[in-house]
Amino acid sequence: MTSLPDTPAPARPRKIIHIDMDAFYASVEQRDRPELRGLPVAVGGSRERGVVAAASYEARKFGVRSAMPSVTARRKCPELIFVPPRFDVYKAVSQQIRACFAEHTPLIEPLSLDEAYLDVTENLQGIASATEIAERIRARIRQETGLTASAGVSYNKFLAKLASDHRKPDGLFVITPRMGPGFVEALPVGRFHGVGPATSTRMNRLGIHTGLDLRAQSMAFLQQHFGKAGPYYYWISRGIDDRPVRPDRIRKSIGAETTFAIDLTALEAADAALQPLIDKVWRYCEATGIRGRTVTLKVKYADFSQATRSRTGLTLITARGEIAQVSRALLEPLFPPPRGVRLLGVTLSTLNSEEPAEAGAQLTLLV
Ligand SMILES: [Mg+2]
Question: How is the cofactor bound (predicted)?
């Protein structure tokens, strides 16, 4: 037995469920349009341009994935059927599944329209088994929406999320405290929530391919290479994750960021890298009807120092192009950068879903 310094394990084991709808947007389309059932369907994008937002399981067999350019998707699957998204419908289904969760616990932390963590350690119906609660929720969702969900059950968020992915679609998987560390050991690091493609590439270059490789690294090494995320990686490689399930805070901002496999130094490369982030933020705005007035640009450098620049307009931003324009204006003065840029982020805040902000004059430059 190794003894762990400052183990942040909670005093009492928790019961956490992660629920994830299966191929959500695509499944909703196949539910509502029977002629699409059994066929490869991509929601979003078009035959010529754009990006796939979601792919049906039939499309996934051909290698079509969400966030893939439509052109690539069509090359992989020439019969792919492109369907425009209907975010108002997805949002309505999202509210239905939330109601299913709320029958069991108020501790619901949504990750997106179709995914949430639930803390059911204490639960409204006094059911002792988290697995039973997860099965009831899955059955209820199917009954209410006609759609399938997968569930992961474990003692923390990190493992619950890994578990929900393990028996997809329409599955349930439990990771017990005894299984946790071993389960993590065997997995490639790219499968871990919080390790994106760029971080995964960085880890691979450092010889870290699996959970076991990750666990072999010291805290100091991980902090040196991954900054603030280092301790998170240190603990998850041991199956430890003490983050609480944070219910429904009022959303104050909508942001997206990405870490690059290779640091950027050119303005045009940085501007190009911002575009998918702006797409993400804007897609969320369109899906939820939320709009904002403040655009914030975050730049993190190779040495982990960072700069943020914001601009707040008098009126709500109503088009994607406005975010792109302001981001570009905030980006330009930061180039050429003092060091390579390892991360860029774009955030929209001063949202119309919050309290009205005090009126500012013209454009306020908050630095
Ligand atoms: Mg899903």
Answer: Binds 2 magnesium ions per subunit.
Domain of residue 288 covers 253-366
Are 75 and 137 in a shared domain? yes
Q: Out of 48, 109, 115, 332, which one is annotated catalytic?
A: 115
Q: Within this chain, do residues 112 and 146 fall inside the same structural domain, yes or no?
A: yes
Q: Is 358 a catalytic residue?
A: no
The answer to whether residues 95 and 127 belong to one domain is yes
- Residue of 344, 174, 218, 204 lying closest to 271 (CA atoms): 344
Q: How many other C-beta atoms are found inside a 10 Å radius of the C-beta of residue 128?
A: 9
CA distance 19 to 313: 38
> What is the per-residue pLDDT across 153-177, written as a single tens digit (0 to 9) for each?
999 999 999 999 999 999 999 999 9
Q: 170 a known binding residue?
A: no
> Is there a domain that residue 171 lies in?
no
> Is 114 labeled as ligand-binding?
yes
Question: Cα(117)–Cα(163) distance, rounded to whole angstroms?
Answer: 12
